[in-house]
């Protein structure tokens, strides 16, 4: 293919948005996606099954994972067009203002090279373009911004029960902000509340990229090539100017594709891996920070069994309600990390987050007895906590090689003491809420790490960060990086809304400054 | 906060669909069942491709200990079918296990039988229910001595999930729990 204006590696949330905006601005855009195509609709492949849903999780070469709290790269990543956002739960809260300036305000972690006020207009624009359901007034913790364009999702029994527990403890709940349609929005269907979000929403009610920006990109003549595995960014000899990428096509043939601008939008594992594989010592790695500064949100479920029917099969996977009473950083009062509660997630019987997974200690007839009871009477709320971006949580290249002879990623991860301390506080709080709500039994599930973050962290100083606030690498001016890989702190919210907002800001920047690249 | 828009207790699924202006038929394609479901394959004694008869007996007995009924539901045929695919739909994938999936299962089978022989001088499939449960508890807790296979709690976790998938994760499994399946797009196979 002839040299293109913009080559994007990865057809997920940020890649799809950037492709749409840049193609609409008249740029020739090519997306290279290593996985397969997926499709919405009755003839698509987003089957309602937790087993089949695993097709949407990473299917490329295994990463080596280790450390005290190994992360599941496969579970957290996506496979194919749509990326990780194809199976995301569309919980779209905003980061809070203090998440952007941990170093300045609290002397820990890093500052982002932008503030909430810088990003707010982009949150508002994405919110309007994609559509978010919620109640901004009830969401008393939310930083300033436009009201949500759609009313909140309905509440089912488990939401009402757990909300009662929060109320008894003097705490507040609000509808959860979701990029899920509660009414027809921009021609996309409204949700049916049958809890199959994890399997990919085939009716387009949930804002996965197949329903939002990718159709716009295709309409504006952007091209998507599947089965195209990018292995390296190609540069001049000095490594200061990107010329394109090397990739292997669906038939395994090595190819080169030239481009004026290269954007890595391949998630927080493959982005740094590609940079490290691109050049001895890593491309765009003057700071030595490529692969460093990684983290994940500590996450666990708090479960309660109720005498009442909880209707846990209904609703959406992301939840019905939100609580952020503990979204605050007050070191002097002992609170060093924030956390959120995603309340009343819809449940299916199987898979990692299903009913059976809530009591992995049970087997045999006791498991059957539990399943019969829990199927109609279990309730859940999910802890999403802040953790520190750590220099020791690091992605490096493994001695293992992929199909094409390039080292796979090796990722070592350990939650911070600060993050784990907040988990302890949250667990006690969650169990108290369930008890106050009237649960006859309550327990905490196992700790996991959700949303892999960091690896090409943004910052103001080229000596300590990989990109600027637009995701433009400090060392290679026509090489950009997008996605959770840019995050300089974790916050305590799901990251996809912020990923979209950062990508929109990058798109504006590229369009405004295009003369530098043309 | 505001009162809920509506409650599932007073609206069945068809009413929800009507409210949303969408018909179920428009959202669901006909189920295209494969030639045999895992349970049917077991009933007909179809040979497995990836496990020997002895391995099959051990792993099937193990799965049925963890989730009674999983054997009859065809868990071994589900596993055998998946292990023949480029991208098996097994929960093992979530663990980023650094070896081929088949070796994980075979390693666990051999470790389990060795453990059974060491403690009871019999292969696992020939143990009575009480002894199977005792060994399952040891494997689950990682307390089994002389376990020489993939990490014992991981083997328990993954195989329990396989059995749960087949027994509870299908449309028939939902029915066992009296739960509505409510497929947007029915999967092309029963599981």
Instruction: Name the poorly predicted regions of chain A.
Output: none
| Terminal CA distance of chain A | 18 Å
Oligomeric description of these chains: heterodimer
Largest sheet of chain B: none
From the alpha-carbon coordinates, what is the Rg of chain B to the nearest angstrom? 20 Å
Secondary-structure-derived class of chain B: mainly alpha
Fraction of residues in β-strands of chain B? under 5%
Structural class of chain A: alpha/beta
Q: Approximately how much beta-strand content do the residues of chain A carry?
A: 15-25%
Give the ordered list of helices and strands of chain A: EHEEHHHHEHEEEEHEEEHEEEHEEEH
Summarize the structure.
Chain A has 518 residues and is α/β, with parallel strands linked by helices. Helix content of chain A is 23%, strand content 19%.
Describe, in plain words, how this protein is organized in 3D.
The complex is a heterodimer of chains A (518) and B (191). Chain A is α/β, with parallel strands linked by helices and 518 residues long. Chain A is 23% helix and 19% strand. Chain A is built from ten helices and 17 strands. Chain A has helices at residues 13-24, 73-76, 102-106, 116-130, 157-168, 213-219, 267-278, 365-377, 417-437, 496-512, and strands at 4-9, 29-33, 64-66, 174-175, 223-226, 229-235, 242-248, 254-264, 295-305, 321-323, 339-343, 378-385, 394-401, 407-412, 441-444, 448-453, 479-481. In chain A, strands 1, 2, 5, 6, 7, 8 and 17 form a seven-stranded mixed beta sheet that branches. In chain A, strands 4, 9, 10, 11, 12, 15 and 16 form a seven-stranded antiparallel beta sheet that branches. In chain A, strands 3-14-13 form a three-stranded mixed beta sheet. In chain A, 63% of the residues are buried. The model of chain A has no long low-confidence stretch (mean pLDDT 96). Chain B is mainly α. Chain B contains ten helices and no strands. Chain B has helices spanning 13-19, 24-27, 38-43, 53-66, 70-73, 75-83, 101-120, 129-141, 152-168, 171-176. At the A-B interface, helix 2, helix 5, strand 4 and helix 8 of A face helix 1, helix 8 and helix 9 of B.
